[in-house]
Amino acid sequence: MGAVAIWSMHYVGNRAIQMLDGGRGLQIRYNAASTAGSFFLAIGVVSIAFYFLGLADDVHVSLILVVGVLTGAAVCGMHYLGQNGISNYVVSYEYKYVVGAAFIAVVAATVALGVFFYFNTTWTNSWLKRALCAAVLAGAVSGMHWCATIGTIYRYKDVTNDHGPLSRQATVVIVLCL
Q: What are 74-90's pLDDT values in tens digits?
């Protein structure tokens, strides 16, 4: 469920970007293959990480570090694979923002998951503490995407086949259905 939320936040956030004064035909469009790939990357990696964390009887710092790094890497991988699916812009990145985005994702995910799973047994009936951990993780995802977006350079390219990529509206409909 969290991986779907991560993926959905990325596409809804990118839909909010207004390119070239909001001209209708100039907004970000995605190809289906990269869009689907980014969806399954996020779900696959986060599911595997959480599966192994759920198997552990005792949560050790080393396991939390591995799961935090995997979760942060999944968030970054999903973002940049999704960005690769932009069909009507050539996208490039400033490396310092890529590093910053990865740092934010890994550190915040590790902290949120560490606190949640370390105190999980004592927080069984505390929805407020669980919600706080979820908010930290949501902040990690949002912060990573904000940093990555700031460091992204979009250059419009002429697209001859306007029917292939997913439109802004189609992307939102897919996200809402998930």
A: 889 989 998 988 888 99
